[in-house]
What we know:
This protein is 21% helix and 26% strand. It is α+β, with helices and mostly antiparallel strands and 140 residues long.
Amino acid sequence: MKEATMRRSIYIEGFSHGQNPVPAASVIGNLLMTGAIFGADPATGKVVENVGEQCRLMFQNAERILSAAGGTFDDVLKMTFYSRAEVPRELINQQWIRVFPDPASRPARHVIVSDRLPASMSLQCDLFACIGERSAQSIV
C-alpha cells in the first residue's frame, strides 16, 4: 500500500464500540470518517442516562476524536444525527450553535429519527471531515 493511502485507525480513551473491533474513526490522507459517536462518559465509558448530558458528551466525544486525528470542528464537512422521536431537536441545536457559532461557516447536517438505537442511547451521530490546511481562497 502507498504511504499516502495508508489507513489510520483513531481510538480515544473512555470510548469504544463495546466488544466490536471498531475504531472511533478512520483516516486516509486528510479525510476522516467516524463510526457512531454517542454520549459515553469518558471517565466510565458508559452512556449516561440524561439525554441533555448524552448530547453534550456526544459533541465532546466528537471533538476528542477530531483532536486525536489532528483536527477540530473547523474541519467538519457534514454531521448526521440519529435520535429517538422524543429527543427535542433543540438539544442538538444548542450544541450545534456552540461548536459552529458562525452561520456562514457551518457544515451540512442531517437528522434521522430512529427507533433502532441501542436501548441505552437516545441519540448518536457520525461525521465526515477533511483535516489539514485550509485554503484562504473562496470558491465562487
